[in-house]
Design brief:
By secondary structure, the chain is mostly helical. It has helices spanning about 1-60, 75-90, 90-110, 120-150. It has a single domain (about 40-150), classed as Up-down Bundle (de novo design (two linked rop proteins)).
Length: about 150
């Protein structure tokens, strides 16, 4: 009986260790996934905020007549946030929204200072950019919530 008890005790110890290691691995994987979700959230929020800031500055120039507002916008931070989102997220909806936001922002910014563009045309470009920013916010929210386990 003593030999059998020793084997059962040893087996119980090994099983306990395996369970502990598996739990630790699961916990680390969950923590890494959470961290990646938090990084994506930060970068998407930064990108959306910078894009909205650009729209506001452009509006201040065109409607309020303030000069140099777009010139002082932080393009470098915008590009960095965009690159980080592209690295952190491979979701097709987020990438499509990102691509449309970039294209609409370039079109809006490129036509902003043209004197031959009517108010209606400029407003249409502004609304296209607004819709693209909203689409990115919606798509990225779904991915972030999924990664963080909120949904």
């Amino acid at each position: 009986m003593t030999g059998m008890t020793a084997w059962v005790t040893l087996l119980a110890g090994v099983v306990g260790a395996v369970i502990a290691l598996a739990g630790q691995q699961w916990g680390m994987r969950r923590a890494n996934r959470t961290r990646a979700g938090e990084l994506l959230l930060e970068q998407c929020a930064q990108l959306i905020a910078l894009s909205q800031d650009f729209r506001n500055r452009a509006w201040e120039e065109t409607v309020l007549g303030q000069q140099g507002r777009v010139d002082t916008w932080d393009l470098g931070a915008h590009r960095l946030a965009m690159a980080r989102v592209q690295i952190l997220c491979q979701d097709s909806a987020v990438l499509a929204a990102l691509k449309e936001m970039e294209a609409s922002g370039k079109a809006y910014g490129g036509h902003l200072r043209r004197a031959d563009l009517s108010d209606d045309e400029l407003e249409a470009l502004r609304e296209r950019n607004k819709a693209a920013i909203e689409a990115l916010a919606t798509a990225s929210a779904r991915v972030v919530q999924r990664r963080l386990g909120a949904v």
